[in-house]
Write a structure and sequence with these properties.
It is built from seven helices and six strands. By secondary structure, it is of the alpha+beta class. The longest helix is centred in the middle third of the chain and has 33 residues, at 87-119. It starts with a strand and ends in a 6-residue tail after the last helix.
Length: 232
């Protein structure tokens, strides 16, 4: 009996490549369950042997579906459709949405406060700090944004710092219009240099020393965004 294994795709839709390089044909009577329905996929995998097809693009892995006996897929789908049609399931979905909305709202507040702590602006520039914290949080925290604020691999304090530097890079420098050589490490070096400049600009606002807002890239950016210019 075929085992539950993971393969890479090939140019032939009914043939897959094993980790050891062998190319195998999909068993007769098996059909491909497309990705996208995690609940159905879990049930199909629990019902018996499956072949999961995963493709590596760059450094990321993408599911291309799961091969399984057609009866298993049909039975799992029928059972799941019946369950999803019940009032209890609708209430469960609604409760889940409400819970996630509350968690997201709380995270936005917590993240904005983390940004404020990182900024540590002097009282003279506190209004700027509050505005910047709101802007950075609104840009970085949405679910699915793919920003550093959504990762759990680093502490929230470091996420806040990275999010501020990223916002500064796009809003107070010419980074988006730069022509950067397609050389390994070149973009990373440019970002490092711009981050140093951004940190110096932030330091200006950590001291009770006045400076001309019109000559300050941060003050200019905050005024521009406040006037209605959208963020990237």
């Amino acid at each position: 009996m075929p085992e539950s294994l993971t393969f890479a795709p090939t140019s032939d839709p009914r043939r897959v490549r094993a980790p050891d390089g062998r190319v195998l044909s999909v068993p007769e009577g098996w059909v491909l369950l497309p990705p996208g329905d995690a609940g159905l996929t879990r049930r199909v995998k629990a019902a018996g042997p499956t072949w999961t097809v995963v493709e590596k693009v760059g450094r990321k892995l993408f599911s291309r579906g799961v091969w399984a006996p057609e009866p298993h897929i049909l039975q799992a789908k029928a059972a799941l459709d019946a369950e999803r049609a019940t009032p209890a399931y609708a209430r469960k979905l609604a409760a889940g949405r409400d819970r996630r909305a509350r968690e997201q709202e709380q995270y936005e507040v917590d993240f904005a406060n983390s940004v404020l702590r990182f900024l540590a602006f002097s009282p003279a520039w506190l209004a700027h700090a509050k505005k910047l914290a709101v802007l950075v949080s609104a840009h970085a925290t949405p679910v699915g944004s793919g920003t550093v604020a959504r990762t759990e691999r680093i502490p929230v304090e470091r996420r806040a710092e990275a999010a501020v530097i990223a916002w500064m890079r796009h809003q107070t420098t010419q980074y988006d219009d730069m022509s950067i050589a397609r050389v390994k490490g070149a973009r990373r070096e440019v970002r490092r240099e711009l981050a140093e400049i951004s940190r110096a600009v932030l330091d200006l606002h950590r001291r009770d020393v006045p400076h001309g807002p019109s000559a300050c890239p941060l003050c200019t950016a905050l005024a521009r965004v406040g006037a209605g210019t959208p963020q990237p």
